[in-house]
Structures are given as structure tokens and as C-alpha cells.
Amino acid sequence: MLFLLLLTLLAGSVRAQRVAMGNYHTLTIHADGTLWAWGDNRFGQLGAGTTTMQLAPVQVGTATTWQRVIAGEFHSMALHTDGTLWAWGNNEFGQLGTSTTTRVLAPVQIGTATTWQRVSSISVHTVALRTDGTLWAWGNNAYGQLGSNGTTSPQLSPVQVGTANTWQSAAAGYLHTVALRTDGTLWAWGNNTYGELGDGSTTSQPAPQKIGTATTWRTVMAPSGPGATMATANSARAQPPPSLRLPRSAPGAVGKRLPQAVIIRPPSALMAHSGRGVTITMGS
User: Fold this and answer.
1) What is the pLDDT of residues 84-114, one digit of tens each?
2) For residues 125 and 217, what is the distance between their CA atoms, to the nearest angstrom?
3) pLDDT tens, position by position, 139-177
4) H-helix or E-strand containing 139?
């Protein structure tokens, strides 16, 4: 119902091209490239320079070059058309990437790179992809969700995840991370208490682990809250490798968290997870 309601709202307004929802705040990018926000603002997550709650949309700065936006629990991040990355709001765990843990009330640029392509952040950590295919991460790392050389040390600014330059997309879960490479393989790391990594175990992993042998994975997302990962594959018959499969009637099958292919046909409005809500992009 929520998804249908949002589609109705967006269809009735040609101005809101992208919508992102956090715990209690909302952001939109209009067709003219301006960014707007409203809702809870206790941590400055609206980017308006204050902590005053806003009951109606207010423009974030004066820039007209916003391209993508995501809403975390109590923070926000966005990309400009020039490839720069910006962040604001709660920064208790260094999830903004500003090299500090101080909250930010208005958008600040993260580093000087102009090659940022996509970013994902829910709560305490962030992952982002650059145009050269490298993957970067920062913030809390208690369960190794940053994938930073197998350590669990927090990072207050972006650090590269390994040396691979073939990453295609990535999603930050609550305390884990999942990603795809250009060869169609699926990778996961971080907290695995509920089997959210899909590796057939409940052991957390501090570095990227390849999940199965399939090369047909197409998209991946990590819903808000601990314990879940979703991915789509190109083939309706895609399945985990035999070593990971359990017959429905097999003893111990209940409660196992193994990858299961879910096929989703792209609708006219593509919904992608962002924060404790969704990002909705109008058009295919």
C-alpha cells in the first residue's frame, strides 16, 4: 500500500523526480536539480542549517545540480552531477565520512573526488561506488561491514574495499554489506547473525566473500533492520549451488538463510532501498 501511495503521489507531480525516506524525514530532487527536505530534523538530517523540524518541504541550499539522494536513519547523502559526494546529519559513527564524528547541519563535500557514482547508507556505515569500478566504505565496522582488509576498526573517511575495480553495485545493510561485480557474481561481508550473508553459515565475515558460484546476479539490496538481504537474477531458474541447497523437507531446513533467486520485472518506477525506506526514481 505504501509503495502504491508513493507512486500515486509521484505520478501527480512531475517536479519530484527522486524521493528518499529516512526514519522520519524525506528528501526529493526536482526536475530542475534542486533538493528539498522535510520532517524530523533533530540531527540536522534535512540539511537546512538548523535542527528545527519542518512540516513542509524546504529547499536545501541553492544548488541546482543534485543528481541522487539517499536518506539514512538520521542522516542524508547526495551526489551532484559533477560526481562529488555530499553528506549531512547524524555522524555518531563516522557514517558521513567527514573524518570526524561531529554531526553536520548542512551539506558538506566528502573529500575532493569527482568520480562518485552511487552511494548506500542505512544507519552506521556507508558504501559508495566510483566510476572506475572501485568500492569504498566508512563508518562503524564492529562486524567487519566495511570489508577493510579483514579488520573491524572504524573508519571516519572513505577507505577502499580491497583492490578490485570490477564492482558494479553495492548496498549497505544494517550491519552488513552486499555487492555485485561486473561478472555477475554476488559478494557479502559483515554481520551474519541471521545468515544475511547467504554463505550457509551464521559466522560474520570482515572481508568480501563470494556467495556461491552463480554469475547471473543482477541487482541486490539490504532492507533496513538486521537480518535480511534480497537480490535479483537474470534467470528464473537461478539457484544457490548444490552445496548450499536444502530440500524443503530436509531436517534443519527451517531457519537456514541461503540465497534464493527472486525475479523482479523492472516497473516504470524503479524502487531501490535507501535508509529505512525507499528511493523512487521516475522512469525506467
Assistant:
1) 999 999 999 999 999 999 999 999 999 999 9
2) 24
3) 999 999 999 877 899 999 999 999 999 999 999 999 999
4) strand 135-139
pLDDT for 240-274, tens place per residue? 333 333 333 333 333 444 443 333 333 333 333 33
**DSSP H/E element including 272:** strand 269-274
User: Closest Cα partner for 208 from 185, 184, 239, 237?
Assistant: 185
Number of H helices, E strands in the chain: 1, 20
Residue 154: name the closest of 208, 209, 95 by CA: 95
CA distance 237 to 258: 15
Q: What is the pLDDT of residue 251?
A: 34
CA 276 to chain CA centroid, Å, is 10
Q: How far apart are CA 149 and CA 163, in angstroms?
A: 10
* Greatest Cα pair distance in the chain: 60
Residue 14 to residue 200: CA distance in whole angstroms:
45
56 within 8 A of 48, measured Cβ to Cβ: no
- 201 backbone φψ class: left, alpha, beta (φ>0; ψ -120 to 50): beta
Note whether 126 and 111 are within 8 A (CB): no
Strands (E), 211-251: 217-221, 230-233
Reported pTM:
0.79
Q: How far is CA 194 from the centre of its chain?
A: 19
